[in-house]
Design brief:
This protein is an all-beta fold. 0% of the residues lie in helices and 49% in strands. It has one domain.
Length: 172
């Protein structure tokens, strides 16, 4: 006979995953070279509302393959109140992809060497603050006016630091 004892606290993430329940999640290791993320997939997908993902300073690193995403928040249905913090995303098509998210937060994230550092799709009333967005094709965008961008360091993004209009090629 076996049973599981839960002591509460954050749930640990040590590889590609889909988060489907509210709660606090922590990355416990670097995820290098996408650890099996395939074309048009996301390494970490958050499909639930009321989630905190704390990277604890770890890296989610991809292979630079078109259509891949480091972290995707949302899906075809709306989610709200999701926080992503203390994380580095590198070498993805989208470092962070916010899709149908409202009242979310992206804080203390470094997005480096992605096609899009942070990509917003039908995302409104979110706070993108205190992030380092460097050496991406596009830093943040499209940045709808209903989102709050504050105290972000945007350096060396090739096409635009903040793109307020989607490019025809921004279809993901």
């Amino acid at each position: 006979m076996s049973f599981q004892i839960s002591f509460g606290g954050p749930k640990r993430i040590d590889g590609p995953t889909t988060i489907e329940k509210p709660g606090e999640y922590v990355l416990v290791t670097d995820l290098r070279n996408s650890r099996g993320t395939r074309l048009s997939e996301s390494c970490i997908t958050i499909e639930a509302s009321d989630v905190v993902l704390d990277g604890r300073g770890h890296v989610v690193d991809g292979n630079g393959i078109s259509g891949t995403k480091g972290v995707t928040v949302g899906s075809a249905s709306s989610v709200e109140n999701v926080t992503i913090r203390n994380l580095t995303v590198t070498d993805w098509n989208c470092g962070i992809h916010l899709k149908n998210l409202s009242n979310g937060k992206v804080r203390n994230v470094t997005a480096r060497k992605n096609a899009h550092g942070i990509y917003l799709e039908e995302a409104i009333s979110n706070t993108i603050a205190g992030n380092t967005i460097v050496n991406n094709l596009v830093g943040i965008g499209p940045a709808a006016s209903a989102n709050r961008l504050r105290n972000n360091s945007l350096v060396g993004n090739y096409v635009a630091d903040i793109d307020d209009q989607p490019f025809p090629s921004d279809v993901i």
